[in-house]
Amino acid sequence: MLESSGEVVGERVLAERVGWLVAVVRQVAAGVVAERWNRADLDLLKAGAGLDGRALPAKGWMAVRRLGWGADVPVGVYVSDRVRRCAEEEAARALRLALHRGAVLAAITASWPADPRRRTDAEWTALRAALEAEGVAGGVSAAVIRNRTRQLRAYLDERGLSLAGLTGRAGVVEVEGPPGVAAQVLLAAADRQLIILERIGASEARLRVQLPLCARPATRRDWAWHVLAVPLPAQVPADARLRTPTLRVMDGRVRVDLPFTTAVPYAPVGGHTVAVGFDWGVNTLLTGAVGRLHAADPQDGRMRDGRVEGDGRPLIYDATPISAKLHRLRGHREALAARRDHYAALQAGLTTRAASRNTAPQYAPHAARDTARYEQVAALHERADREHARVCARIRRLNNALSWSAARWAVDQAVALGASVIYLEDLTTLEARGHRKGNATLSGQVRGRVADAIRHLAAKTGLAVVTVPARGTSRYCPRCGTGTAPLRHTPAPDRLNERGWKWAHCTRCGLSRDRDQAAAERIVTRGLLAQTHTITDRATGARTIRTVMEGNLSRVRRPRKPTRAARRARRTGTDLHPRPQSRHDRTRQNRTRRDRAKTGPTGKQPTTKTFSQMPDRRPVPAPTLTVGQRPAGQAPQANSPTAVRTGLVRDPHHRTGFHKVKATPVLALAEYGSGRHHATPARKA
């Protein structure tokens, strides 16, 4: 709505005016980046001091102005100083990101491996040390390192240089050109003279912003205040504090990226006793295991060394159907991209031939035919490009939904099990090898999103999320430790003599279980034993453990539930199995038992022996139906455990949001047994 006249502006007109603002900001920011894309200016920005010797501020637009890199407005265009701030903030972020890429390239150059395609453990250690020396140790994944290595190799091969000739000459400025500027407006750099944000209800906010009335505003009268009604989704709490948004235009609609902050409980760094560890599985997307650090001995008050207990309950999030769907979509996307590139090459060829024929009079009669062919190919190219964009958007939406579903499930499991920390594998030290497809490809694509979503959801419930080193978690046994004989990976538990990757078997203690579950147990053991070595990144707040402390995870079984006769004897104070006093009484008791075994207690039906031991995992009760016959299964009971969740989910039975995903139900964990505290090897298959 236009504030001055009260005129209601349509969605198409509003998107057009926001697009004009985005175009002006993008043009101004791109000019600053292109002008300062040289080694001298980047070194000046990296030094962190302005022309007057003062330290550069954290805000990008203020740092740019202190360096004297003010933005130049296009001739004939009028913009306010607040719009220039938004452009300078965008340019400063792009240049500071280039400094980060330059530091990664410098570390790779300083620790160049013998074979760039595969680094050894010693070369990875040298690279991590070089990254720490450059000040970018945190947040650099193996994928980033691999991509930057390929970029540097391509630069060397193109110019015929060696590593000796590269030293001191190749930086981010020489290896790549000026980065592109995003089509957005960072309103966080402005003040109330350009934007005013107010919350007018639990589900709506009002954004008051100045927008241009034409593509090239020449005077101040070409700008006007617009009032935008911003609906708030259900996940925004009523007490949340709204922050300054970012404006974008996507698919002809205005998008408002509206951040908000809420107060969350503090998650302690140490002192954890119950934890859940998750492995980025090869067989499944996520595989978890629960562990408890043994309490202090009541007699001497000391902690038992390396004593982590677990009950062997697997936590599995199997997204195989979604993985297959994403694999098919990726194949379709690649085919569309190849078709689009083919049509683009045909267009370029037709354009070149038309230009050459225009210079020769004898080819004039063929101009109409060439024009018709060009229009036909252009229509096919536009169609292929549109289908490619549609498939890409579908893949992004499915990846995003799957990431948040897996993160919600993981946090729900930790809350239900009473854990205070979640341990994950460190993504910066994790790199897939070989030619695996399916779930491994899916895991490599969404694992970063899942980790970020777990941190976000865990912060709301007061859970700490810590990453541990990933190397060696699937190599050694979680029961008997890092012995001389590593785990044998086999295809299945009944094919222990064959080589595979799905199943893990220990020839030393007899462990035989799923490979990912064994790795999850080692992850939770590493985290609990090395929690005193937790490091917190000041910039991002992410917590990680870089010290590897190995220990064994012992199996603890729950005590058997007492029978009805035992509970009656305990209540009445009588003997559970009274011993006969005479030979005649023993003979009569044995005869009675034989008779009951033949005819039953009433003489009409035989007696079957029953057991009242509770299973290790309580089954999920069958749902109650209002009409029709109840399906087979355990009937709902009042004493069933209450399922714990941290937010809304779509599927009340699987709690995943997908009807094809198989996941472990979110159930509370019973008390640990108080029996023998030593490792109990599983039975060999």
UniProtKB/TrEMBL annotation:
It comes from the Bacteria. Residues 449-522 form the Cas12f1-like TNB domain. Residues 555-571 have a biased composition (Basic residues). InterPro entries: Cas12f1-like_TNB. GO terms for molecular function: DNA binding. It holds the Pfam family Cas12f1-like_TNB. Residues 548-644 are annotated as: Disordered. Residues 599-610 have a biased composition (Low complexity). The keyword DNA-binding applies. Keywords: DNA-binding. Residues 572-588 have a biased composition (Basic and acidic residues). This is Cas12f1-like TNB domain-containing protein. It comes from Nonomuraea glycinis.
